[in-house]
Amino acid sequence: MSRVQLALNVTDVDAAVDFYAKLFGTEVAKRKPGYANFEIADPPLKLVLIEAAEGGSLNHLGVETELADEVLAAESRLSDTGLETTGVDDTMCCYATKTETWVTDPDGAKWEWYVKTGDAEEMTNRSLGEGDACCAPSSAPEPVAVAAAGSTDSACCG
After folding, report:
1. Residue 41 structural domain
2. Using one digit for the tens of pLDDT, what is the confidence trace for 67-110?
3. Nearest residue to 50 (alpha-carbon basis) of 71, 62, 36
4. Which residue, 22, 134, 124, 36, is CA-closest to 75?
5. pTM of model > 0.90
6. Which of 20, 53, 55, 156 would staple 135 via disulfide (CB 3.0–4.6 Å)?
7. How far apart are CA 32 and CA 43, in angstroms?
8. Is there a domain that residue 35 lies in?
9. What's the DSSP call for residue 153?
10. Which pLDDT value is given to residue 64?
């Protein structure tokens, strides 16, 4: 089985281990001074945490699911562990419609748990319901500039 490895610099490896154990519902696989890694089965991911003076500089990270029910279940599980989420919202962002929730790790890295529900013809970041705009809730990431022909718009949800 292949899986993606993601290595992050974290300012406090203990706080990061606690957060990621809750986020992915699994225990750390290896723990050493200033280092930890997780071997996550669902979604398949090798997550490496390396203690450093500064946390990583990412726009955001995400877990794409196949069903909206999986987003709802993830949001419920995350909330039940005491993590603060944005709640679940239907949004349009990054040329897609999505059902999503967001959570922020101890160093400020933003995680989007989502399912793509359709395609959209615009980059617009907005809620399809009554909630905040996609990628713009107070806990969501700062937008990333996207080079589009003739456009200076910025976007998130990479």
Report:
1. 4-51
2. 999 999 999 999 999 999 999 989 887 677 889 999 999 988 88
3. 36
4. 22
5. no
6. 156
7. 24
8. yes
9. -
10. 85
